[in-house]
Write a structure and sequence with these properties.
Structural class of chain B: alpha+beta
Shape of chain A: globular
Order of helices and strands of chain B: HHHHEHHEEEEHHEE
Strand content of chain A: 5-15%
Strand content of chain B: 5-15%
Number of domains of chain A: 3
Oligomer: heterodimer
CATH class of the largest domain in chain B: Alpha Beta
Number of strands of chain B: 7
CATH topology of the largest domain in chain B: Glutaredoxin
Distance between the termini of chain B: 28 Å
CATH superfamily of the largest domain in chain B: Glutaredoxin
Helix content of chain A: 40-55%
CATH architecture of the largest domain in chain A: 3-Layer(aba) Sandwich
Number of helices of chain A: 19
CATH superfamily of the largest domain in chain A: NADH-ubiquinone oxidoreductase 51kDa subunit
Structural class of chain A: alpha/beta
Number of helices of chain B: 8
Strand order of the largest sheet of chain A: 3-2-1-4
Distance between the termini of chain A: 40 Å
Shape of chain B: globular
Order of helices and strands of chain A: HHHHHEHHEHEHEHHHEEHEHEHHHHH
Number of strands of chain A: 8
Largest sheet of chain B: 5 strands, mixed
CATH architecture of the largest domain in chain B: 3-Layer(aba) Sandwich
CATH class of the largest domain in chain A: Alpha Beta
Largest sheet of chain A: 4 strands, parallel
Largest interface: A-B, 73 and 62 residues
Chain lengths: ~425, ~200
């Protein structure tokens, strides 16, 4: 269960895993050589056969997404390095510590997709990862892995880094494309999907950093080898960010299918200070919470769907028994209220109201009717309060603000009620 | 302030990277901040002139993103308040930093030395509570280290802000092993990125 596709090099070579020299010495850019000897459609078939699902949040099968790319030219590959989902810091490590793995993945993917131009959209707060990616691109260009006629082939590619400027919503792929076009980062109505009308209304594939970092391995070993790792529907390794009240926070690359108990207790060292576990967020701030009764559930896309939540961005946030769930929910809801782009009324108004209601409960000014009001406002954003949500908005940001509300109201309703009644002290 | 020939040349170079000039709006907004230490009306007009859109359109873009700042101190200290940092009491770090600097969160010191802000997730959850100074990371802060950070910025007046330097002086638990030092660092309240001419200390 200790397969390492993504993080082996950085662990073994801590001082120089980000350099071209170390990357080449450990087999780097051999997958590109192999890929350039294959037909683009053969590479796409390997990726499809690997059954890798996107690692950004939505979990859509990458090979299927690639298959939607419209045939017209020009077309673009855009890497989503806007990692901003609270609880998630895995792409940051991949970019800082093994940027060439991503760059090689970009060149191979662009070749497979027939794109001669790729952009890496890095969030503005990730200055250091952006510098490492930029340096890797420059090294790769010098070595002939990027540019005109790559390694003597007829394939040419330019890659550049574009910095965001502090907007979570730009992680939504159509908002990202608007931002890259020099517009406000507001999500677009779909369809058309980016694969048909993306950047500059041209066919565009947007893929996450971790997803594309897997491509060199898939080309080297074949899609079938990747598909052989992990349980049905949750193939390959995944990098999970573990944080919160845990003894050993960090990024853990695991084969899916292990249990939450394995990840939180065996790898993460358990709850800090020997305290009891109260709840955890299984896939970034947007995901509905799980509770100790779920500890022996497997970490798979399917098991999460069955429990009404998701693996999302792979950000796991552990909360111990001392956690004030109203304060925790407020932190999460405030995030979404702050990051709402404002286009859709249910999200813009609803998230703000949820924030205000939680704030007054936390300040000891909650009203008995607030219990129903929280759920009523939530239901107006996300009818039926289910996951995956029914959509009233262009993108899933609005329904994501509802996840903390449904989580505390289904698992910790008594605590909320007690705080409103003044039976427990309010405040953080 | 009209842009210097050097800044203009760099702006032209950046515009040329993109299939369409408008895509250069965000990079040029960073360039405008470098030029004046903040974003001014004149700066936005310069961006508009080079990207073929109006100054109002540039303002519409700039106002959407939190990192384009019209008022900002010599350094911006950003304390994360999102869930993992919240759980590990980032509020105590915010309070300590605000108290030591005398600048409430969300405001800029009268002398223009510092801007203190609370921000949403900066991707340092494993090293919570985390802070950025001019978008250079420091992880695993305590309230006391937060106070020392403020004193260092105000008393030592460093020209270059480097994440490794911050981490060594004020940091604790990290999200992951950072590996070797990055010699580059920030020169002002905008991200240090060589292609935008905003990085100091080598690349």
């Amino acid at each position: 269960m200790n397969e390492q596709i993504l993080t082996g090099r950085m662990q073994e070579h801590r001082t120089d895993s980000h350099t071209l020299r170390r990357y080449e010495e450990t087999g780097g850019y051999q997958a590109l050589r192999k890929a350039l000897g294959m037909k683009p459609e053969e590479i796409a078939a390997e990726v499809k056969g690997s059954n890798i699902a996107g690692r950004g949040g939505a979990g859509f099968p990458t090979g299927v997404k690639w298959g939607f790319l419209a045939p017209s030219m020009p077309r673009y590959l855009v890497i989503n390095a806007d990692e901003s989902e609270p609880g998630t810091f895995k792409d940051r490590q991949l970019m800082e510590r093994d940027p060439h793995q991503l760059v090689e993945g970009i060149v191979i993917s662009a070749y497979a997709l027939g794109a001669n131009r790729a952009f890496v959209y890095v969030r503005g707060e990730y200055a250091r990862p952006a510098r490492r990616i930029h340096a890797a691109i420059e090294e790769a260009r010098q070595a002939g892995y990027i540019g005109d006629g790559i390694l003597g082939s007829g394939f040419s590619l330019e890659v550049s880094v574009h910095l965001g400027a502090g907007a979570y919503i730009c992680g939504e792929e159509t908002a990202l494309l608007n931002s890259l076009e020099g517009l406000r980062g507001e999500p677009r109505i779909k369809p058309p999907f980016p694969a048909v009308e993306g950047l500059y209304a041209k066919p565009t594939i947007v893929n996450n950093v971790e997803t594309i970092s897997n491509i060199p391995w898939i080309v080297t070993h074949g899609g079938a080898a990747y598909d052989a790792i992990g349980p049905e529907g949750s193939k390959g390794t995944r990098l999970f960010s573990v944080s919160g009240h845990v003894e050993r926070p960090g990024n853990y690359e695991i084969v899916m299918g292990m249990t939450w108990r394995n990840l939180i207790y065996d790898l993460g060292g358990g709850v800090r200070g020997g305290k009891e576990l109260k709840a955890w967020i299984p896939g970034g701030a947007s995901a509905p919470w799980l509770t100790p009764e779920h500890l022996d559930e497997p970490i798979t896309i399917q098991a999460c769907a069955r429990l009404g939540t998701m693996l999302g961005s792979g950000g796991i946030v552990v909360m111990d028994e001392t956690t004030n769930v109203v304060a925790a929910a407020l932190s999460l809801v405030r995030f979404f209220a702050h990051e709402s782009c404002g286009q859709c009324t249910p999200c813009r108004e609803g998230a703000t109201w949820l924030e205000r209601i939680l704030e007054r409960i936390l300040h000891g000014e909650g009203r008995p009717s607030d219990m129903d009001l929280l759920l009523d406002v939530s239901d107006n954003i996300s009818p039926g309060l289910k996951w995956p949500p029914a959509m009233t908005t262009i993108c899933p940001l609005g329904p994501s603000a509802v996840s903390p509300i449904t989580s505390i109201m289904s698992h910790f309703r008594d605590e909320v009620a007690a705080m409103i009644a003044g039976e427990v002290p309010a405040g953080v | 302030m009209t842009w210097s020939p050097d800044t203009s040349a760099r702006a032209d170079e950046i515009v040329a990277w993109y299939p369409e000039p408008r895509s250069a709006v965000m990079p040029l907004l960073y360039l405008a901040m470098r030029e004046e230490g903040r974003l001014s009306d004149q700066g936005m007009q310069e961006v508009a002139a080079r990207t073929g859109i109006t100054a109002a359109q540039v303002l519409a873009v700039a106002s959407f993103y939190t990192m384009f700042k019209r008022e900002v101190g010599r350094h911006v200290v950003s304390v994360c308040r999102s869930i993992s940092c919240h759980l590990l009491d980032s509020q105590a770090v915010v309070d300590a930093i605000a108290d030591e600097s005398g600048v409430p969160a969300g405001e800029t010191a009268d002398d223009g030395s510092l801007t203190i802000e609370t921000v949403e997730c900066i991707g340092a959850c494993g090293g919570a509570p985390a802070v950025q100074v001019d978008y250079e990371m420091v992880e695993g802060l305590t309230p006391e280290k937060g106070r020392q950070l403020v004193r260092w910025l105000l008393d030592e007046r460093p020209d270059l802000i480097r994440s490794d330097d911050l981490q060594e002086r004020f940091g604790g638990q990290r999200s992951f092993d950072w590996g070797p030092d990055d010699p580059a660092g920030a020169l002002g309240p905008y991200p240090a990125f060589a292609p935008y001419g905003t990085a100091g200390g080598g690349s």
